[in-house]
Design goal:
alpha/beta, Barwin-like endoglucanases, 6-stranded mixed barrel, 29 helices, 30% helix, disordered C terminus
């Protein structure tokens, strides 16, 4: 009996092997397995075909990204004697507990799976379809598929063996002998028959009860959307690790090959636009480029550029480079501004060639002497490993939208010639703060370690100055350069509202430095506490996150080396925690480390709320950067909007944009028996917010503090105390070092007395979303949910007039429950699904349809009608009502 019937999963490691199949009787998208391995894996089977689920090795270790569909494969059971006769062709090295899978080159190319990739397979129950829709890409294929011979052959094949089908894939049935009687038959027709729709799952088998529909797509074949089949393996980011377009010849080092392709005229420095990658998994997969030699650089300290950019820089792939950031860009030449004769040989954007002659150096030294009286922060520079990331296309500006330069989580890492991709933590450590997360006009300067002095842009003098770094004569590859090792590192715990400042995270620090890290003095490091449940008890109930991201600031590195930029730290480095400090933080680190970027709740720019985020940012940014004109004003804001419209979501997104902490309290929890006790709670809340500064102090339901505990009369003592507390804590006067912004929310401004409204300098009102905004919010809420092609968000947005973000979120939840009921009823056949069958159902992949949204809308509207006492909509047909009227 198969293992899935016993409720357990017998997962086995497998390796691919080439096999010479008979082209006439084998579907190239099927895999082969020996009969002996099949007996150990599936048990004794009467059929010559079996269905198994396949996952890649990196997909098994993926954390934090939810359950993904697996790839169902059809395994053809081969006789052991046939396999032994073909052993010279397969060239398989038998290993214990490893199952050889015999595949064709067509299989690897079709699913974008490398031949040397390790996979894991296990038996799976493929549920039968109720309906399958195939589309013929050519007229010839359509005439063949609608023939009676095709339907007869498919019916015979279904009765004899399991016929697999997959959404957006080719015809996966075995080679049917009956079809060979048709003169128009050829195996090429299998590839021209595309699966357009299948119910109730995305992968399954065709049964005798399945309705098979054939449609003609020959006129619209160019309009078909491209859906990569690699998503069934959870490898949408496989293109991120794409190697250069031209593979390296055998026996040639890819780094040396790139050196031979370098242009004769090189730039000491290039200027690129930053593109922030929100998830660590994207950086991790992109860093696993097989053309890069293994180095001591961690994945977070790697930057990715196009091949044209690394050619202009004149360094091999995988070399160490120095990067810095400046808001004042030097004169830049692009292909649009160059003369026509030079535009063809120019790729992207770069800094003009730097004159390193003696006269230029002398002028630069004079610039340094002239600017001694000007106090300027030292430019922050970092050492990174530069990696080529080539692809066949450029990312259009319309795809990135308002998220630019923040890469959308569902977009592949596709770079333009003038862009550089880097992590948000590295981006944070390159800035002097306060600095916002998204800076469209900021450039990243990349230079190689080849000169004894590098050039730094001096904004006051609008010129370049010499800044000493590392002395060498040739570009430094990653495997020949080693930054100095740090013996002692002193860390200061960054004060935050998500964890107590008295906590010790020794185990998290130890795990962090198990990987060799590249650190610089003044950097912030981010530690995840997800794997340490003992920290949950320390956080308590008063903290928003049970597994927070812990921030440490590197205050000192010993021994200090002259002109050293970065140091290597490992388990052999002594780490000391020296007190606590206040600092800005990379607020997107929780998303980056957990690989969970929800497009609404954890995004710095949630769709549908962008205009309110922009308004709030314009108001509070002068207070964050401590503008002199705001010194005597209180940084306070009253945010008004209906319940569930997204007021707290806007504030959280603002904290991510401005790299500051967020401390949230519900004012109903601040109420006490007496006015004095309420004042004490308010002062205690402000004390905690001041500890976490720079911080936004979000006071939800501020109208609760306007009334006494019984909610009958106003409490002037509490209102006066709150006004005084806001004025004393939210102003910049008195030498206060870190800013504190107070934002209060209320559903109705009429419930807030005038005396309490006067506590806030600004007021922003959030209205119910428009139809366009509702569509954007629905698309964002359903971004991580597989939706069918029949889902019309425009129609749903029209039917949800008057709803807010909370209502739309509830609608999506009801839709998922409706889809769950539909799928379970179609697959269970009157009995409950076992746990193993539920896992197999998730591996098969499910989709929500327009009908699921319709059911959810009807349920919510009926519940709302019952709440307000409105009559329900009559389901009487028009013909019946006419008969009643006539009678």
């Amino acid at each position: 009996m198969a293992s899935y019937l016993r409720g357990t999963r017998s997962e086995k490691k497998a390796k691919f092997a080439r096999f010479c199949f008979d082209v006439a009787d084998h579907n190239p998208l099927h895999l082969g397995i020996s009969k002996s391995c099949s007996a150990q894996f599936f048990g004794d089977r009467l059929s010559n075909f079996a269905v198994a689920s396949m996952r890649l090795e990196n997909e098994r270790s993926r954390e934090g990204e939810g359950k993904r569909p697996a790839l169902f494969v059809c395994l053809r059971i081969l006789d052991d004697e046939v396999v032994r006769r073909s052993v010279t062709i397969t060239q398989v090295v038998e290993l214990p507990d490893v199952i050889p899978l015999y595949a064709t080159d067509t299989f690897h190319e079709h699913y974008n799976i490398p031949y040397e990739e390790d996979v894991y397979i296990y038996p799976v129950k493929a549920f039968p379809f109720t309906k399958v829709v195939y589309g013929a890409k050519t007229k010839r294929c359509y005439e063949w598929a609608k023939n009676r011979v095709f339907s007869t052959g498919l019916l015979v094949s279904v009765c004899q063996q399991r016929v697999l089908a997959r959404l957006h894939d080719s015809f996966l049935a075995p080679v049917i002998p009956v079809l060979s009687q048709d003169e128009a038959y050829s195996l090429q027709l299998y590839e021209e028959l595309l699966t357009l729709e299948c119910e109730p799952t995305m992968q399954g088998v065709i049964s005798v009860n399945t309705a098979v529909i054939i449609t003609d797509l020959s006129a619209n074949v160019d309009k078909l959307p491209h859906v990569p089949l690699s998503r069934f393996l959870g490898v949408e980011e496989r293109q991120l690790a794409s190697s250069p377009n031209q593979p390296a010849p055998a026996g040639v080092d890819p780094q040396e090959l790139l050196v031979t392709e370098l242009m004769e005229k090189k730039s000491e420095m290039i200027c690129l636009r930053p593109l922030l990658v929100p998830k660590f998994s994207t950086i991790q997969v992109a860093g696993n480029n097989q053309n890069i030699k293994e180095s001591l650089c961690e994945k977070g300290c790697q930057i990715f550029v196009k091949r044209s950019a690394i050619r202009r820089l004149g360094v091999p792939n995988g070399s160490w480079v120095v990067i810095s950031v400046s808001d004042f860009a030097p004169k830049v030449q692009t292909a649009k501004t160059l003369p026509p004769e030079q535009a063809e040989s120019h790729n992207g954007t770069h800094v003009e060639d730097v004159d390193t002659s003696k006269e230029s150096v002398t002028q630069s030294e004079n610039v340094v002497q002239d600017t001694t009286a000007i106090e300027m922060p030292k430019p922050k520079v970092h050492i990174c490993q530069i990696i080529v990331h080539d692809d066949q296309q450029n990312r259009s500006a319309t795809n990135s939208g308002i998220h630019a330069p923040f890469l959308h989580p569902k977009e592949d890492l596709v770079l333009n010639t003038e862009e550089v991709a880097l992590s948000p933590i590295l981006w944070f450590n390159l800035h002097h703060h306060p600095a916002p997360l998204i800076q469209p006009d900021t450039c990243v300067y990349v230079r190689h370690l080849t000169t004894s002095s590098s050039l730094i842009w001096l904004p006051e003098k609008r010129n370049w100055i010499q800044y000493p770094t590392i002395s060498c004569e040739k570009p430094i590859p990653a495997d020949s350069f080693k930054p100095p090792s740090a013996s002692n590192i002193h860390l200061a715990l960054v004060k935050s509202s998500t964890y107590p400042i008295t906590s010790y995270f020794d185990e998290a620090i130890k795990k962090y430095f198990k990987t060799t890290r590249l650190v610089s003095e003044g950097d912030l490091i981010c530690l995840t506490t997800k794997e340490f449940p003992e920290y949950i008890q320390n956080t308590g109930d008063g903290y928003e996150s049970r597994t927070p991201i812990v921030y440490y600031k590197i205050t000192k590195i010993l021994p200090a080396k002259p002109h050293a930029i970065s140091y290597l730290a490992s388990l052999h480095t002594n780490v000391f925690q020296s007190g606590a400090t206040s600092s800005f933080i990379p607020a997107t680190a929780d998303v980056f480390l957990s690989n969970r970027l929800h497009p609404v709740w954890r995004s710095p720019l949630p769709l549908g709320l962008v205009k309110y985020i922009s308004d709030v940012e314009d108001i509070i940014w002068p207070f964050i950067k401590r503008s002199p004109e705001c010194e005597r004003l209180a940084a306070s804001l009253l945010l008004v909007g209906p319940v569930g419209c997204g007021k707290s979501t806007v504030v959280r997104a603002m904290c991510r944009l401005l790299n500051i902490h967020c401390y949230i309290v519900n004012c109903y929890n601040l109420l006490a028996d007496t006015s004095a006790a309420t004042e004490a709670k308010i002062n205690n809340a402000f004390f905690k917010a001041n500890i976490a500064s720079p911080c936004i102090f979000l006071m939800r339901n501020i109208q609760a503090l306007a009334k006494d505990r019984d909610g009958e009369e106003e409490d002037p003592r509490v209102i006066a105390s709150l006004r005084e507390t806001i004025t004393s804590n939210a102003t910049c006067k008195g030498g206060k070092e870190w800013p504190l912004v107070v934002i209060a929310t209320t559903p109705n401004v009429r419930n807030v007395p005038a005396d309490l409204q006067s506590c806030f300098l600004h007021q922003v009102e959030m209205l119910s979303p428009t139809e366009v905004e509702r569509k954007q919010l629905l698309q964002a809420l359903c971004e991580d949910i597989p939706t069918a092609f029949d889902v019309d968000f425009d129609h749903i947005a029209k039917r949800t007039a008057g709803t807010v973000l909370g209502d739309l979120s509830a609608l999506v939840s009801h839709t998922l429950r409706a889809a769950h009921k539909r799928i379970v009823s179609a697959c269970s056949l009157g009995s409950e699904l076992s746990i193993s069958e539920e896992h197999d159902l998730c591996d098969a992949g499910i989709q929500i349809h327009q009908s699921d949204f319709g059911i959810a809308l009807d349920e919510m509207q009926a519940a709302h009608a019952d709440t307000i006492g409105a009559p329900k909509r009559s389901n009487m047909m028009l013909s019946n009502s006419k008969i009643i009227c006539d009678s």
